[in-house]
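B., you asked whether I could sanity-check this one before it goes into the benchmark set. Here's the sequence:
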Amino acid sequence: MTEYVKQLAQFAYDAKITAEIRKDVTERILDTIGNSLAGRAESLKSGAHEPDLAVERAVRSWGGVGKSVVIGGDGGPLPAASAALINGTLAHVLDFDDTHLPSVLHPSASIIPAGLAVAQEVDATPDQLIHAIAVGIEICNRLGMASYIPEIRNSLFFEKGFHATSICGTIGAAAAAAYLYGVDADRIADAMGIAVSMGAGVIEANRTGGTVKRIHCGWAAHGGITAAAFAREGVTGPPTVLEGRFGFFNAYLDGKYDEHALIDDLGIRWELLRTVYKPYPTNHFTHPGIDCALALRNQIADLNEIARIELGVAMPVMRTIAEPREDKTHPKSGYHAKFSGPYTIAAALTGGGGLGLYLDDFGPGWDAPLRLELAGRVEVHADERATEIFPRAFAAHLKIIMKDGSAVEHRVDASRGSETAPLSREDVLTKFTLNASRALPESAVNELLTYSALKDRGELERFLKVLS
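And here's what the prediction gave me:
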């Protein structure tokens, strides 16, 4: 028997965390915290119906007292699994969280809330926390990579309508939590084996609306911690939980998976380092189109003179950002608009802020008549070059045709923030500062930046105190 889960668990137990990995994780924590703080601020402005607020009300109604803080909350600390459910929802609520390719999943929004919550419960050191997050994200990414099928140029999870982020995130969160609970490699394997029965998520909300998708990362963090706690107390998982006849790969992926992507060079080649930050708070598939629109906007003197806009994207992403057309040209909400190719083009031509397109573009006034008119003029089609590149990178071609017959066009082969066009550290810190400032005073934002290196237990305690 192959027993992949034991190989992953051994890696989680004894991985060597280099200075490069440590720096990456601390910056990733900062990005996740910034997204979460901005998410809480936006929800408080929008009202009680927002999913993170609804989740917190439900969780607090369950009761329980713990040591884990709720980011931006004022109701006191909670048990680790409960705090992680809220914080994981917050981390994903704006769709501003990082992305790994070609798995096309968002690992940090599940793994970091789980790691922070358990670290507080067990009074872990910064090094233990960073180790846990690093291996949790790596395992999450490797599981996602294993689902990429070259023949279809897509993740099989997405082809089947599953949300890889929440499914793989639950297993990565279990590995991170189990490591922090101090169990051995066999118990880490059990935690992941249990977590396979807890991961879930479908992505229909990306297409037609609904707020449930924003809870997926919180549920993954919650499920991972719960699985780890069960394993610590003696519950066991099947040793062939990944490759077995009724295991993960057969149940979710019809037995099609890439063994090499899953286990080759574990601990040597870190997929963690290839997880990229988002410059814009929208579905990542929309980013290359936004890049194109931002590049062209200064060449258009009068937006009212636009006759039509042609957006070419990778064929697999059309189901998410172009269909159904009526929903994408007339989104149901500012959040729903983040998953619309036509709308985000219109927003990039008319709005701005942040690193080019920002949260305010999807807040009050998101449905301004000119934006919706422009969105209605966008026709989305499959672009051969973008399809060939996908999902190693997100590419697009945009052509804007004016009423007088003139046209401007621009092509992007890798969206901003990708491996070939990475955000600078200054960009990452700018994004964090803008996000955190929506919820915290300048002094608190500066404190978080000061302590974000997590050099010792004192810095970790100060960092967490600001969040509480």
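One thing to flag: The first strand starts at residue 99 and ends at 100. Otherwise nothing jumped out at me.
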